[in-house]
Amino acid sequence: MTSNSSGLDVARIREDFPILHQMINGKPLVYMDNAATTQKPQAVIDALVSYYSNDNSNVHRGVHTLSQRATDLYEEARTKVRVLLNAASDKEVVFVRGTTEGINLIAQTFVRNRVGPDDEIVISAMEHHSNIVPWQILCQERGAHLKVAPINDDGELLMDEFEALLGPRTKLVSIVHQSNALGTINPAAQIVALAHSFGIPVLLDGAQSIQHLKVDVRALDCDFYVFSGHKLYGPTGIGVLYGKEELLEQMPPYQAGGEMIKSVTYERTIYNDLPAKFEAGTPNIAGAVGLGAAIDYITNIGMDRIYAHEQDLLTYGTECLSGIGGLRLIGTAQEKASVLSFIMESAHPHDIGTILDTEGVAIRTGHHCAQPLMDRFGIPATARASLAFYNTKDEIDLLVKAIDRVNEVFS
Amino acid sequence: MPGLNDLYQEILLEHNSKPRNFKIVEDANRSADGYNPLCGDQIQLYLKVEDDTIVDVGFQGTGCAISRASASMLTQSVKGQSVERAQEIFDAFHSMLTEPEVEVDYDTLDDLECLSGVSEFPTRIKCAVLAWHTLLAALNGQSEATTTE
């Protein structure tokens, strides 16, 4: 189980994840639904317990010791995110509920006032619904148009066609860094450079890339990057919006209430400085603390080693699944993360999912909140095994065995 | 844990591979689209109702083996039945899947009983009932049915 070229001791790593050690339907759990959410190491669980056991209080403004401790922990978590993303300042790290809230925040406070009739917003053909619908609503409201950059049959963005969509009317490029349904890793730096050459700001949806890739927002030069903590081995309900400071400064608040103000009278309210301006109300303090613990955990292992092991798994998994008769992989990009989306001639994805579950193998089936992408491939759904660094080649063998069972049932 | 064989019984697999009444009823006077937003399964159900009797029925659409087989069996069981009887079959079928404490009405259900194993797979109940909710919608003059149960 431990043999891999990345030097990761996966057997030991698995010990850090208590949930992995259980039987499902009489079989050892093989958890391969990591694109939906990742499991939590003991360090994250302990951080949540410790926070609520020892440090819980409301943040900021309190003069008592616990409030100071909670504030320190919350702000330390922000610094950890800043270091992880290589942002220039803690002010550029806004805590939100998740990727979806981050995108909606940008739609409402950055894009809304910039788009008018016949302006355009450019996305790609492999977006999650959360990076389609907010723009659709905005475009309808403002009389603007949503433009979709096409992809090829391997699930790769067609860069020439993407470039052709850019112009003076384009007010934003919002594009997924890594596709949740296909695994495709988009050439983010190139996309940003291209958009910037037209003076167009770029939002990267990092919901998937954050768990697989080393993300350096300054190297990418993206204007915004959003991700969810629960896909980075942290808790649910906490996420991050990174934005360049000069842009965040220009933007009005998203929600109004406590925390986001400096002073309030009935005549006038002065908004707080960044990032508090965007964090109205009591934030998810425990969530931020848990995310901080998750960042410590993966930083300690090393994103490079995580990437190397996951690429090993991807290569092995692709090889194994390609050898199964009647199975077709959906998403075969050159640059790809450890996501194996597939369909089978014999069975519908939901039936595959149920049969795999009886073998203890947890995968996701359906349209993966990317219905237009499914339409692009002319299929209603796929079965998707998404692998994390705690997965092993032995588990891929179990996946293959479970898929063989599908063919038996539907023979 | 119920076995896979309870779920994917031979008769179900047979209906999946060779669905009955998989057709558009050209002279239908009732129809509805059924859609399961959670998984994307969709079905179009066509009925020809004359003098309160379902004289013809057909369906189209895409879905998993369970939703397809269930739709196929639905068409067999309601064809030639009165609207009232179709409602009774719906009730018995729905109860078999969602109310384990209620005794199964074998007389009414007949072959449909082979879908009883679905009740042991809560995430798949919505697949089995999609066609049935679509039937009710069509009979009630609604054009759309949605299941998420």
Outline the structure in words.
The complex is a heterodimer of chains A (411) and B (149). By secondary structure, chain A is of the alpha/beta class. Chain A folds into two domains: 130 residues, Aspartate Aminotransferase, domain 1 (Alpha-Beta Complex), CATH 3.90.1150.10; 256 residues, Aspartate Aminotransferase, domain 2, CATH 3.40.640. Chain A is built from 15 helices and 17 strands. In chain A, a hairpin with a 4-residue loop joins strand 11 and strand 12. The longest helix of chain A is centred in the N-terminal third of the chain and has 21 residues. Chain B has a single domain, classed as Sufe protein. Chain: A, CATH 3.90.1010. Chain B is 41% helix and 19% strand. Chain B contains six helices and four strands. A four-stranded mixed β-sheet of chain B has the order 3-2-1-4. The longest helix of chain B is centred in the middle third of the chain and has 16 residues. Chain B is globular and about 40 Å long. At the A-B interface, helix 13 of A face helix 3 of B.
CATH architecture of chain B: Alpha-Beta Complex
Mean pLDDT of chain A: 96
N→C terminal distance of chain B: 21 Å
CATH superfamily descriptor of the largest domain in chain A: Type I PLP-dependent aspartate aminotransferase-like (Major domain)
Integer-rounded radius of gyration of chain B = 14 Å
State the domain count of chain B. Answer: 1
Radius of gyration of chain A in whole Å, from Cα? 22 Å
Largest chain interface and its two residue counts?
Answer: A-B, 20 and 21 residues
Which shape of chain B, going by the Cα principal axes?
A: globular
